[in-house]
What we know:
By secondary structure, this protein is of the alpha/beta class. It is about 30% helix and about 25% strand. It contains six helices and 14 strands. It has a seven-stranded mixed sheet with strand order 3-2-1-4-7-13-14, with helices on both faces. Strands 9-10-8-11 form a four-stranded antiparallel sheet. Strands 5-6-12 form a three-stranded antiparallel sheet, covered by helices on one side. A hairpin with a 5-residue loop joins strand 5 and strand 6. Keywords: Isomerase. Belongs to the ribose 5-phosphate isomerase family.
Amino acid sequence: MSLEKAKQVAAFRAVDEFVKSDCVFGVGSGSTVVYAVQRLAERVELENLKVVCIPTSFQAKQLILKHNLTLGELDTNPIIDVTIDGADEVDSNMTLIKGGGGCLLQEKIIASCSKTLIVIADYTKDSVKLGDRYKKGIPIEVIPMAYVPIKNKVLAMYGGEIKLRSAIAKAGPVVTDNGNFILDWIFTNQDLDWEQVNTSVKMIPGVVETGLFVKMCSKAYFGQPEGTVVERSA
């Protein structure tokens, strides 16, 4: 079975189990969430569900509009019932690395406003320790003027390697939806206290957010090669 099919079965299961009528729904970002929005649109049409969708990115907003779903915002819906989002890696403690697509800040804001955060992913994102499978590192969103001192400070604290993320079809660095740069920190110690790392890195002036999501995720659905779904709860 293809990876895409694995993503789809995880996304469909999560939407079927967690999205109810009259709910405020946080729409995550990334390739797996495309299937979640597709399934939500099917259910809205079939069951006449009333769902307000809050996007975590420009991509998520376009998905909501494409499927003619009701678009909301945090100004009017500051409490979200459930958010379904992807992840780059999930460890055995349900700590996540997110931000491979560059949307970590808005994703974490939406997650923090949610009663429940559900992760959907294919089996390649399921790890025992962070770094087992995902080798691109932990994204850190930073104010552009401060990226060099931030890089030096993180390396002094924890070692490893840090790269300024470069754009694909644009000369220069990736610029996030919020006008910031992204540093990708490739760590070497997989046994760090990720909650402490997240706190200490965020205390560096100029750091906007990290891609470490600690104690935020309630449940994860991993689509398997044979078409089944493995569930893990916090």
